[in-house]
Automatic annotation (TrEMBL):
Keywords, ordered alphabetically: Hydrolase, Metal-binding
Keyword Hydrolase: yes
Gene3D superfamilies: Fumarylacetoacetase-like, C-terminal domain
GO MF, one example: metal ion binding
Entry protein name: Fumarylacetoacetate hydrolase family protein
Domain Fumarylacetoacetase-like C-terminal stretches: 27-233
Any one Pfam family match given in the protein's UniProt record, by short name: FAA_hydrolase
Cleaved signal peptide residues: none
Amino acid sequence: MKHIVPEQKRIFLPIVDSDQLFPVGRVYCVGRNYAEHSKEMGDDPERDPPFFFAKDASNVVPALFSATTHIAYPMATSQFEYEVELVVAIGKGGRHLTLEQASEAILGYAVGLDMTRRDLQAQAKKKGRPWEVGKSFDESAPVSPILLKNNQLSAVVLKAEIGLKVNGEMKQVSHISNLTWSIEEVICKLSDVFELRPGDLIMTGTPENVGAVQAGDEIVAWVEHLGEIRVCVTD
């Protein structure tokens, strides 16, 4: 059967030290999953349960460790902001997962950026509208190659440093251990509202000190033991 319009391009992420690829399905994001970021955005991390929003799979930009990735400053915004995040790649699906099943569902980990049109997000929030206009747009999710999970990697990732620099200046730094809701807890709660599928990505939240970038700025984002990605914002 012929398509009436050209098929949209699928996005694939490389697997470190492998010739296999990870086909990106859905991209789920966790809102305000670090206490200090929750506070700077006006929430109470002790009271608020995790909430979820989504980016489109087409928003993902494969960002290789060995090269600079270029993304364009997006249209319709004057407040383009960075958020560094640990990304979890799902290898097994399911619904209403237990903590043990959630751990088994993890295929691997990556470094990601949840780029945000903050002014458009703020306008949507003020009017009680969905966030997609501020979160789900072209090139808004640079993601590194995926490192496959093993017991040793999982143990060190739980305590790893996460950070981001802009033009060499430190902007964000924290540790994965500061997550309000752990990786497995996030997967469990997400699986209570969506049936997870192999190929899904979960962006697990960002630490405090998010901020804006301009065309010409260079972002370096990392998670300890996973590597770093280098992203340049173009006109």
